[in-house]
## 1
Amino acid sequence: MPERIVITGGGGVVGGAVARALVHDGCDVVSLQRGTISDALRSIGVNEVRADITGDANDLTAAFRGADAVVHAAARVDIVGPWEDYERINIAGTAAVVDAARAAGVGRLVMVSSPSVAHTGRALVGAPAGTADPVAARGNYARSKAAAELLALDANSDDMAVVVVRPHLVWGPGDSQLTERIIDRARSGRLVTIGSGAALIDTTYIDNAGDAIAAAVHRAAAPAVRGRAFVVSNGEPRTVLEMVTRIARAGGAAGPSREVPYAVARAGGRVVEEWWERTGRSGEPPVTSFLAEQLATAHWFDQREVRTALQWSPRVSIDEGFARLSAYYGR
């Protein structure tokens, strides 16, 4: 019998990548989300259940019953927004998923998180996965995911192995959080470099993120894996300027049009955030203090331990990823 895996948010970009990887591994995959999954996922045999992680707890428990593992990928990922929304979806939603998984007798739970939960603004050079810090993390998204991560890991037990995977700066075809934002800004002439753009960052091609999370599902009960958080990436640090320029060019646009000093961008980001929240604006602001930090600060991670623990390594290199992205945009 194939293992039955339920993915919350399987209709999203990262959740979809996990679904594809698990189907490839021979698993019976079910996506749980509020909307519908894509025809592409349906065509490879992914089933779906309509439910809301912030809704009826009985619906969640029923959806998880009979599952060998749950991958929790559903989250609010917007850069800005009211804290109450992040608290309801990312923290209370994670608590509901944990409780339902326990009630349904699920043996393994893998939570998808972000390296931002442990990023306090300082450069991270060859760093390990730090401890999630809801107080020091930057922005409502990072703080809420940090709190949710601690909550999930606290549920690790002999009955349910819990693992957290933090894919770092995911990009690739279909990604709207990073890839599309860069390309849209480049096409409109609004893409800028914060500082010199020389800071080294590591990123994760979307298929590699899916494979790593699938590997965590299979390895969750291993002593070297359970109860831990892992940052995963391509392990190929590049400068911010190179990554942003190559993503823009893959989408048929030019690279950054100008350079903005870091101090100016960070201070302006704080002002924009406050104005966005005060006026109840929707959509993405042009800059935030967190975004300025991310684009001006080195952050890349030592991948040796995670690859050994998860028995995983990236199969799509940075260069191959850009070739695929260019093909996706018809370049």
## 2
Amino acid sequence: MTQKDKDTLKHVTVGANQTDARLDRVLATALDGMSRSRLKKLIEGGHVTRDGNAVVSPSTKAAAGQTFEVTIPAPINPTHRGQAIPLDILYEDEELIVINKPAGLVVHPAPGNPDRTLVNALIAHCGKSLAGIGGVKRPGIVHRLDKETSGVMVAAKTASTHAGLVAQFSARSVDRAYHAIVWGRINPPTGEIEGAIGRHPKNRKKMAVRQTGGKPALTRYKTLASYGDGLASLVECRLATGRTHQIRVHLGHRGNPLVGDPQYGRTTARRSSLASLDSNTKQHIVAFSRQALHAHTLGFTHPKTDQRIDFNTDFPRDIAVLIRILESL
């Protein structure tokens, strides 16, 4: 049997109340589990026909009584192979999986990290239960954490749940809170940091607050604890937008970079503050080798059950040890 023989053929007849509606909207209403963006790609790829002729424009106006044939290509084997990487699973059902990502694990294969990623781990773990996200059997990544950021993440196992989660993230209805250890004491202790974020003008691997050319970004924060007479603070951050490196960039721009951050940390600027500490304590703090950032909270509405579910994760060992050291100052 060829790959084409495994394709699924669906017939959709336009209802009387759908006259003049866009074709992609009509099909999305009729075909459960198919997102509108996925259907747009199928239409543009010639997979939707009427009377034997391909209809290639998603905005084509439908007329009552018309019947369209939709060829849904069978999910193909994933480009990325599954790899047996241990996962800290907080929740799993047929539609989605929630994991506590460790620091050091890249979310998605990319140049420089072709494998040994979260995607490779999920492909191996989920196996045949993956229903084909975007026509490919792979987990549906709807949000990302930086490689060295730990904490809670959700991934979809079906196309319809992926679409539902993406819609919630786009609508900012997902509850997300991050805990960060930053240098210094933030003033005021609770507030907002607003500043457009774009590529750094001199270092393309970094992001920066930009006066022109950036995308609007807003971070809300509150101080949870302060250590060592203002040497460092534990801060909770909630994102009103989701820009690359947003928390790290905003707090660094504010003058309170994350402890251990190799890109935005400016640890050398804290040498005078560390000078009074004993050498062992100083060494432990300076040696913290990644940004002290943890995705603590994730809450969303389950796309299938319509139930609200929430997750809170403890600090991983390295941050917990760092906090104990700072609390002793």
## 3
Amino acid sequence: MRSLALASMVAALTVVSGASLAQTVAPAAPPGPMARARYSLPWNLRPAIAPNLVRMDVAVAFQSAATSTATLLTGGGRPFAALPDLGLYGRLGVVTHAPDQADGRQALVNPLLFALWTPQLAPGWRLPVFLGVTVPVGAGSDSSPAQRATFASGVYTRQAMDNALFAADYLTVMGGAGVMWMGHGLTAQAEFTVLQLTRVWGETVNADASRTNFTTGAHVGYQLVPWLTVSVEAHYQRWLSDPAAVVAAAPAGNPLRRDQFTVGGGLRGNFAVGSALLRPGVAFFAPTGGFMNATDYRIVQFDLAVPL
């Protein structure tokens, strides 16, 4: 009897231990879509976590003499299961420009192809690295002055943070990096980008064979409740080279095109739909100086991001 009881106890312990081990090694269930809402997605900065993503955002710029819009569609994701922090993306778009007392026009932007590598350095910390290139086919090298002005209007409509998309006749290679921390409902991130523009055609209308640009920005967001995030964001752009337009403006007492600085913020919703997360948002931005301030730019941005 004692042997039977001992054998029963050993068998029971084996079953319990096996169940505990199974629970230990069993893979955790994948997080639901609302887990992605803990990250405050920036407005004009790059994501610091490489997502599977479809996104459309529309910036509407009101200024003293015109109204412009820039509509961008971004899509892509992580193509390699073995590299979950690497994302490959493409961006297309259209810009419209309506000067006061004149007919409006529209133009396609330069397509952008880019990669994001966002490794986790430590719990809550990531180091996003960016590399991209544009294809200079947006405005066309032989387009009219009005059409080229429409194309260029997207620069300030996007707060001078996406210059390469609106650089007619220039192929642009760009790279940058940043840092992000996320925890306790708070997201804080910053980034910088260097853009090297090389003229591929349009010598008769563009005096610069090459241009070098620099952008940087910071974003802070807080998840007030699971379905609502509030954020603030700042952007700064500066020409590192001396483009003809900047040099020509300075002697006339107008050094306002060298750099731009804008600040603003907005609200973003977080709504789970099946396995997807709908993240609609609206934000407002204004300049603090430079050409944008001199011409009374005020920008409203509407955004719908769908991380999958």
